[in-house]
Every structure is written in structure tokens, then in C-alpha cells.
């Protein structure tokens, strides 16, 4: 009885964890960062609500209309000569969909362009509208490990801003270095903000891949995906490593090169805007100072983020089970290097995990079979001592000792496997390798597109329905609980899981389905051997 209760609690706990993800799209858990060495810096201010104009701005208008193009093997960037504001940032290796002729992803939409991504704000004034810009140079074409620079000059309110953007052929980072010179006869103080803007980076209502704002500060990685809260404005001042707009697969981020700084975010008119501001710039007449930041605009590829500055690799978060998820991702990559099919790699990884837990599963099934044999005797003890629980428990324990049965033995091995499932769940949810990765492109003997994108749901719900059927069969093979109520609840679990898995990414459903099939084979083999 105790064994079945623990098993029931385990299964229900897993169902709640998965169901919560499905219905409520939880935010990414906070990751604790290592505290930096104490510095004589202003104390960080807590996050707080700000008015809608927390990030000053105005619709971008270009005076000259001249466009400067930067070509690299990874992207095509088009910038306005008036200040270096982005017109387009097109990713060459990523498409908007799997259909033939799908366009490459452009991280700067028409709506975002109007809010001047890569624009500078000086003392609260948008330089793209208030300043006078000049540019001398030409388009850049970079290859291999080359770098290239574009330089822009702005005169605004007694200050001259000399802006140099550095592009790299082998990464998605853009370095922004600004020299601020005082052209007045008086002391000049100022604040310089670097900005980005973007629309949603995931499908509308995608609970598995929400678009969210995150920033990494001394307290850890903070995340906010609720657009109602972001519409009020978000502000944090302190040791900001970076702040960005991201989904499971893409990232637009700003990393200041000097701290402290202020990170701001705002959601308005279906548009996300972020800014990192450096304040307390104090210039004597004729003097100048340098302020710099790094941008990242691109896919969340682990190797590229690891080479990026300011711990941008922390934007790939596996939650509480990262210690399990990270090696599983590496194992999946290694298997793919042989199979060249991510679906096959998931199947092989599932087989490997099953082999690792094979001894524990064997012990669990044997323990449940032993408990099943004791059910009649346990029922008699409960009936005999219905009014004396102390005596009933004593005789139960004596029964377990006599037959050398551990009442917890059937469930503990299963409990130990739950962190592995959740680790793999988080790993697959954040693996950009699965985006638009095909397993079986067409439904067999038809021309219908089927499992052509492992990051999307099965369009015909075939795999989740088969998964539910295998789970039902697995329940039938598992020794039944003595309590009829528990039996009924357990038989409902396949239906509940099938409903939840209908819209799961196909890669996750494939893992669960293969795991079920292997579990059924193992139980059948054990029953035949017995």
C-alpha cells in the first residue's frame, strides 16, 4: 500500500511538473551568480515600475537615406548612415519556416526599425532625431576571421559623439565604442544609452518558447515574460553584465563594458525595447571620454555564446537540472555527428539512458512484483487491525522482513529517473539544433509533411497518441495496486499525459515514446523470465 502511494505521488508529481509547463509557461528559474569583488560603487537599485517613457524615443527618420551594408558568412546587416541605426539584420543560416522558399530570419522588423535599434540616446534625447550625423566610408564584406569597422560622427547639444562599430565575420557580436567630446566652454555632464528593439521572437501564444526580457546582474539571472508588467517598464541599476530580449533560440542583447550601468526594458504596441545606460559622464571643456558596449544579435549557439563577452552564455539556461542537462546536450551532439539525424540521435540517447538505468528499473519491477504477491496477506492484516494502526504497521513491517521485501524499492528507482527526464526536457527545449531539424520529413507513403521540425508539435498528433497507447499498455503490465481507487487514478494517467503531450515539441514526444517502448520490452522480458 505504502509502495503504491509513493508511486502514485511520484507519477502525479511528474504530471504536475509537466502540466505546469504546458498551461502556465513558467519563467526561467533564477540562477545564482558569483558575487563580484566589493567595489566603491553606488548600491544597486531594485527593479521597479517606470512610466511608459522609461526609454526615451521617437520614430526614426533618416535624413540622407543612405544605407551601409555589412556582409559576413553569418549575417547581412544594413545600417542607416545617419547614426548606424539598423534597418535589417538578416541571419543567413536560419529560416522563418520549413516550407520551400522560406525567407531568412530578419531580427529587425519594420515596426522595430522605427524605434531605432542600435540607436544612441544622449541625455535622454534620441540622437537619430536630435543630432546631426555624418558618415564617411563604404560597405564591408568580411570572411573567415576578418573584422571591419564603420565610423559615425554626431554633434548634439554641445557634445560630439564619434561612434565606431566593429563587426566580426565569425560571430554575431558587434562592438560599439563611443568617444564623447565636450565642445563647450563649460563643464558637461551626460548619460549615454545603447538601445535595441524587436518584435516577438517566437510564435504568438507559444507556451514552450516564450519571448522574454532577461538581464544578468550580481544577484543572478532575472527574467520577465509578462507583457503587462513589461508595459509598466522595468529598470535596474547596478552591476549589469548584460540585458536582452530572447526566446529559446534567439537573443538580442546589450552588454556594457563598464559598470555600474542601468538596464531598462519596455513593452509597448507589441514591440519590445531595451536599453543599457551609462550615467555620470563628466567632461571638462575640451576633454573627452570613451563609453563602450557589445551587442549580440543572433541564434543561441553554445559555442558562439561561449566566445562572446560578459557571460552571454548564461542566456542558455537549463534551470535546476543544468548539471544533468549539459552533459545530455553534449551526448546528443556527439550522437548527431554520427547519425546526421537529430531524431535518430534522440532515439539513441534514450536507449543509452535506459541502459544506464536498466539495473534500477529491474529492481523496481521485481520489487513491485514481490509487493503484488504480498497483497492478499497485507489485505488480511489491514482487515484484522483496522482499528489499531500501530499494531497494523508493526505486522506489516514484520511481513516485509519475513519475505525480504522493501516497500520503497519499487518507487525509489523511478524517483531517481525523474531529474534525468526533466534535465533532458530542459535540454531539448533550449536546443537550437532541433529548430527545423527533420526526423521523418513525410508521412510514410504520402506527400504530407510530418516530423520535419522536431521543435514543433506533430501536425497529425500521431506520436503523442501512440505515446499514450504505450503508456496505457505499460500500466497494464505494471503490477496493479491493491486499492481500486488507486488503480482507476493510475489508468487515467495515460489519458492525462496524452492530452498534455499533444502540443509538445516532437523531439520531446519522441523521447518519451521510445522510453515507453523500451520500458514495455523490459517489463515483458522480466515477466517472461519470472
From TrEMBL:
It is found in: Cell inner membrane; Cell membrane. It holds the Pfam family 60KD_IMP. One of its GO terms (molecular function) is membrane insertase activity. The keyword Secreted does not apply. It is a multi-pass membrane protein. InterPro entries: Membr_insert_YidC (IPR019998), Membr_insert_YidC_N (IPR028053), YidC/ALB3/OXA1/COX18 (IPR001708), YidC/Oxa/ALB_C (IPR028055), YidC_ALB_C (IPR047196), YidC_periplasmic_sf (IPR038221). The chain crosses the membrane at residues 342-361, 405-425, 489-514. The keyword Cell wall biogenesis/degradation does not apply. Its main location: membrane. Keywords: Cell membrane, Chaperone, Membrane, Protein transport, Transmembrane, Transmembrane helix, Transport. CDD domains: 5TM_YidC_Alb3, EcYidC-like_peri. One of its GO terms (cellular component) is plasma membrane. Gene3D superfamilies: 2.70.98.90. Signal peptide: none annotated. Residues 342-528 form the Membrane insertase YidC/Oxa/ALB C-terminal domain. One of its GO terms (biological process) is protein insertion into membrane. Residues 68-329 form the Membrane insertase YidC N-terminal domain. Required for the insertion and/or proper folding and/or complex formation of integral membrane proteins into the membrane. Involved in integration of membrane proteins that insert both dependently and independently of the Sec translocase complex, as well as at least some lipoproteins. Aids folding of multispanning membrane proteins. Belongs to the OXA1/ALB3/YidC family. Type 1 subfamily. Interacts with the Sec translocase complex via SecD. Specifically interacts with transmembrane segments of nascent integral membrane proteins during membrane integration. This is Membrane protein insertase YidC. It comes from Desulfocurvibacter africanus subsp. africanus str. Walvis Bay. The lineage of its organism: Bacteria, Pseudomonadati, Thermodesulfobacteriota, Desulfovibrionia, Desulfovibrionales.
Amino acid at each position: 500500500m505504502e509502495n503504491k502511494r509513493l508511486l502514485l505521488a511520484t507519477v502525479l508529481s511528474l504530471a504536475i511538473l509537466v502540466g505546469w509547463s504546458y498551461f502556465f509557461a513558467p519563467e526561467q528559474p533564477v540562477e545564482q551568480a558569483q558575487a563580484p569583488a566589493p567595489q566603491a560603487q553606488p548600491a544597486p537599485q531594485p527593479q521597479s515600475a517606470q512610466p511608459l517613457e522609461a526609454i526615451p524615443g521617437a520614430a526614426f527618420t533618416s535624413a540622407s537615406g543612405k544605407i551601409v551594408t555589412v556582409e559576413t558568412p553569418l549575417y547581412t546587416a544594413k545600417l542607416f548612415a545617419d547614426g548606424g541605426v539598423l534597418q535589417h539584420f538578416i541571419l543567413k543560416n536560419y529560416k522563418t519556416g520549413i516550407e520551400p522558399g522560406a525567407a531568412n530570419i530578419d531580427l529587425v522588423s519594420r515596426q522595430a526599425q522605427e524605434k531605432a535599434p542600435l540607436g544612441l540616446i544622449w541625455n535622454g534625447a534620441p540622437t537619430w532625431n536630435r543630432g546631426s550625423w555624418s558618415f564617411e566610408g563604404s560597405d564591408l564584406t568580411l570572411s573567415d576571421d576578418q573584422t571591419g569597422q564603420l565610423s559615425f560622427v554626431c554633434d548634439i547639444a554641445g557634445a560630439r559623439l564619434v561612434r565606431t562599430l566593429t563587426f566580426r565575420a565569425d560571430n554575431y557580436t558587434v562592438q560599439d565604442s563611443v568617444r564623447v567630446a565636450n565642445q563647450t566652454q563649460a563643464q558637461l555632464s551626460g548619460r549615454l544609452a545603447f538601445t535595441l528593439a524587436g518584435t516577438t521572437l517566437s510564435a504568438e501564444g507559444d507556451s514552450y518558447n516564450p519571448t522574454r526580457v532577461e538581464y544578468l546582474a550580481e544577484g543572478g539571472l532575472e527574467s520577465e515574460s509578462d507583457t503587462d508588467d513589461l508595459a509598466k517598464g522595468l529598470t535596474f541599476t547596478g552591476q549589469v553584465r548584460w540585458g536582452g530580449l530572447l526566446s529559446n533560440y534567439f537573443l538580442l542583447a546589450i552588454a556594457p563594458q563598464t559598470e555600474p550601468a542601468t538596464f531598462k526594458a519596455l513593452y509597448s504596441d507589441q514591440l519590445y525595447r531595451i536599453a543599457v545606460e551609462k550615467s555620470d559622464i563628466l567632461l571638462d571643456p575640451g576633454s573627452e571620454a570613451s563609453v563602450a558596449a557589445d551587442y549580440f544579435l543572433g541564434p543561441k549557439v553554445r559555442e558562439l555564446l561561449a566566445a562572446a563577452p560578459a557571460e552571454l552564455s548564461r542566456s542558455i539556461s537549463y534551470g535546476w537540472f543544468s548539471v544533468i542537462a549539459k552533459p545530455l546536450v553534449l551526448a546528443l551532439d556527439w550522437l548527431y555527428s554520427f547519425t546526421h539525424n537529430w531524431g535518430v540521435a534522440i532515439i539513441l540517447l534514450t536507449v543509452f539512458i535506459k541502459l544506464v538505468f536498466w539495473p534500477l528499473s529491474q529492481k523496481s519491477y521485481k520489487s513491485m512484483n514481490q509487493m503484488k504477491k504480498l497483497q492478499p496477506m497485507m489485505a488480511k492484516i489491514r482487515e484484522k487491525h483496522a482499528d489499531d494502526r500501530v499494531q497494523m504497521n508493526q505486522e506489516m513491517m514484520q511481513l516485509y522482513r519475513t519475505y525480504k521485501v522493501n516497500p520503497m524499492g519499487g518507487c525509489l528507482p523511478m524517483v531517481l529517473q525523474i531529474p534525468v527526464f526533466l534535465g533532458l526536457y530542459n535540454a531539448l527545449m533550449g536546443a537550437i539544433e532541433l529548430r527545423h531539424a527533420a526526423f521523418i520529413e513525410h508521412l510514410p507513403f504520402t506527400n504530407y509533411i510530418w516530423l520535419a521540425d522536431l521543435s514543433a508539435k506533430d501536425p497529425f498528433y500521431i506520436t503523442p497518441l501512440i505515446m499514450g497507447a504505450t503508456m496505457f499498455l505499460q500500466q497494464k503490465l505494471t503490477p496493479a495496486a491493491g486499492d481500486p481507487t488507486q488503480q482507476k487514478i493510475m489508468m487515467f494517467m495515460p489519458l492525462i499525459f496524452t492530452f498534455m503531450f499533444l502540443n509538445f515539441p516532437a523531439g520531446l514526444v519522441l523521447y518519451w515514446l521510445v522510453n515507453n517502448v523500451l520500458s514495455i520490452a523490459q517489463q515483458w522480458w522480466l515477466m517472461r523470465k519470472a
